[in-house]
Structures are given as structure tokens and as C-alpha cells.
Amino acid sequence: MIGLLLPAVQSARESARRMSCSNNFRQVSLALHNYHAAYGHLPCGSGGTTGDDELTSNCDRLAGLVGIQPFLERSARWEQISSPYPFESPTFPPMGPAPWRFDVYPPWQETIWTLRCPSDPNPGVPGEAGLTNYAFCYGDSVHEVGYEPGEPLPFRGHDADPITQRGVFCKRIFRRFDDITDGLSQTIAMTELATYLGKRDLAAVVINVGDLKNNPSLCLQTIQSPQPQRYRDDLSLRLIPGTTASRGGAWADGAITWSGVNTILPPNSPSCDTETDHLLEGVFSAASRHRDGCHALLADGAVTFFTNSIDASDASQATIYTGGPHGDNVRSPFGIWGELGTRASGTAELAHDETTN
């Protein structure tokens, strides 16, 4: 009898957790729409105060999740972040220090339960950054996708590629709903992330996988075994310095590596960045601890569950970038999943047989 009842109980519990996750995501959706109503645009994926001192500025790396705090009924915490903190020495400026300095700034350590999926068992580590299971969508490109369009990149000898910023969110750009010409109901604004449990699973990022902009399928070669999926033991993983965290490991950090996704590989695929020293470009996949897929937030506010089997076409194709084989302003080469991640490349047809509400 126990053998018969236990799977049913586990299934019912997961259904309840999945529903709770969907409700949390709807709260985030409402916060984004209220933010747009208040300011006339959405928050940027990453931004903030500029400066080289990580204690006197946030180094332009705050996630959009910080800006929507007052719209998540967290006005008291927002007042702390947007004012000098604390009130005695040492004092941090408004909007805090760099998000990776959570060791000296308690607001970055806080667990915000609205940003957590109940199916993700990671409790976080006291004294480290608070976690998030919800991430901003940057589109379907790899090349320099986590940088501000036109931002000088001295280590590359040129400015950041402007045409790779194909999603609703990007660094220091505030999109409006009018900019989403593919249609709000046909465009992904955010997806779930699974946080890293320290078991070399796909909630971490593999370091230094070259030429992903021309062949994202190289990231698939980092998997050691299909079931259960885990990274090969000979590969190095990208972890937040000073922590055991990776994807979703710092809710206030706007780096695409920690709090962003692109719609190239389907949900619950591996994630890889392209260089050892510069971590703002690569393949960053949506993921969850739910079975067979993950939730995504569409720009119109709907929360939809996408399965791992959604059409993502051929991952060995080149991504969109200046001088690339596909040209500019074209439809995504990565099937329905890629089209849903772009905001202005034609109308994406939502495949209802691949999704459930």
C-alpha cells in the first residue's frame, strides 16, 4: 500500500509546489507591470551606479529585481536600499555597494521568498547572497549579450555588439512594451532558474567554452551523462567568488551569468560562458527543479510552463551577431524557443502542444 500511495503523494506535493511557484511568478509579473505603469518603461536587466570602487558604487551591476522591490510590497527594504545604509559608520551610498559585496551589506543577503521556487530545495547559506529562481530573458544571442550595446570593451578592442541584444532585457537599456513588436503574449520576459546544489548538475556554468556564438551545441558536449544530467568531471564550473553558488546565486546581481537566460538551448540544458576572465556572454539556459520543463513569464503577464521538448531547432547553427552568417533583424535560428525569446524579429507562433498553462 505504501508503494502505491507514495508516488501519488509525491506527485500531489509537487503539483502544489509548482502551483505556488507559478503564483510567485505572477507576483513578479504584477510588479513588472506596475513598474512600467509608474515609470513608462521596464527595469533594465543590469544597471545602477557607476564607479570603480565596489564599496562606494554598485559598479553598474544591479539586477532589475532590485528596482521592482517596492512593487513586491517590500517598501521598507527598498527604503533601506535607496538610502544611505546603515545610519552609523561605515555608511554605504544609496543603492548599495557592488552586489558581490554581500559580506558587508545585509540587504544583498536577504532571502526574498517571492523570488524562490518551492521545488528548489536550496536553502542558501547564511552570510552569503540571497538566491533567486527567476531570471530576465536576454534573447537568443551569445556574442557580448551581457554588455551594454555600444559599451567600450578594451579587452576586445571594440564596442559591444548592438544587434545581439534581441530580448526584452539587456544591460542599461530600459525597454517599453511598445518595443516588443513580436507581441506581448508571444514574447518571454523571464524564466525560471534552478540554483546550484553542489553536485555538478546543470544549475552551474561551465567556464571557457569557445566559439559558442557560431556553434552553441558545443555547450551540450559538456554533459557527462544524459540521465541524470551532470557536467563532466574534467571541466571547471563558474561559481560566485567566495560562495558555493552559481546560477541564481545572487538575487541583486545583474550579471547575465547569475540572473539571466537566453533562449538557445531548450529548458534544463547546460549553461556555458566563453572566457575565463569575462563572464557576460555565453549560453545561459532556463532550468527548474520541476519535472520535464520550467515556467516562463510572458510579457503580457501570463505564466506558462514550457517542456524540455519544445522546438529549439538545430543548436549547431550560428547565433545572430554583426558580421555573422544570418545577417541582422532576422527571425531566430533556434525554432519556437528562440522566437519566443526575441522581442522584435517577427511574430513567434506559440506551440500549444509544447506548453501547458
Which helices and strands, and how do they pair?
Layout: H1 2-39, E1 46-47, E2 62-63, H2 64-67, H3 75-81, E3 134-137, E4 152-153, E5 158-159, E6 188-192, E7 205-206, E8 223-225, E9 230-231, E10 237-238, H4 256-259, E11 260-261, E12 271-273, E13 282-283, E14 293-298, E15 303-307, H5 335-341, E16 355-356
Parallel strand pairs: 3-11, 7-12
Antiparallel strand pairs: 1-2, 3-6, 4-5, 6-14, 7-10, 8-9, 12-13, 14-15, 15-16
Strand content: 5-15%
Distance between termini?
33 Å
Count the strands?
16
Q: Structural class from helices and strands? A: alpha+beta
Fraction in helix: 10-25%
| H and E order | HEEHHEEEEEEEEHEEEEEHE
In spatial order, strands of the major sheet run 11-3-6-14-15-16
How many individual helices? 5
Oligomer: single chain
Notes on the protein architecture:
The protein has 357 residues and is an alpha+beta fold. It has five helices and 16 strands. Strands 11-3-6-14-15-16 form a six-stranded mixed beta sheet. Strands 10-7-12-13 form a four-stranded mixed beta sheet, with no helix packed on it. Strand 8 (223-225) and strand 9 (230-231) form a beta hairpin. The chain is globular and about 55 Å long. The chain starts with a helix and ends with a strand.
